[in-house]
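Exercise 7.
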Amino acid sequence: MAGRRLKSIVASGALALIAPLLTGASGVTPTFEARVLAMHNAERARMGVGPLRWDPALAVSAQRWADALAATGRFEHAPENRFSPEGENLWAGTKGYFAPEAMVDAWIREKKYFRQGTFPNNSTTGEVEDVGHYTQLIWRATGEVGCAKASSGREDILVCRYAEAGNYIGEKVL
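Solution. The predicted structure, written as tokens, is:
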């Protein structure tokens, strides 16, 4: 079992590393979805967590919220559906400046403050806000993700939705 898991992790990491080379050689540009998913799964592989699958319904939900944020100029989490909770990560930055990989990497960089354990006691700073995006990204029980980008006059906004939602108090991240 451990050998199979290690092989899966190595394969996921290798694919994430060579995908740009393969697509460059063929002249095919990877899609937004593939690029965002590859960033998520490369970090999950580094942490020994299984890969996420792309969920089109989550992506549609994320697109609706990203569009709403872009249209209103607000930057806040969507109201939670208590009957079907989804995790959510938000990012915003200068319009046209950041690649999808850089957007997701902003969440991955929270790793420097992450420590293993029971949520919300996973931050070396003592502030859950310093690791909350990262813990959702690597949450062991999360299996699906869907993301979308929208633009306002000045900003690009990335919304990623996750199922099963993460960041539950009293549960282990990994």
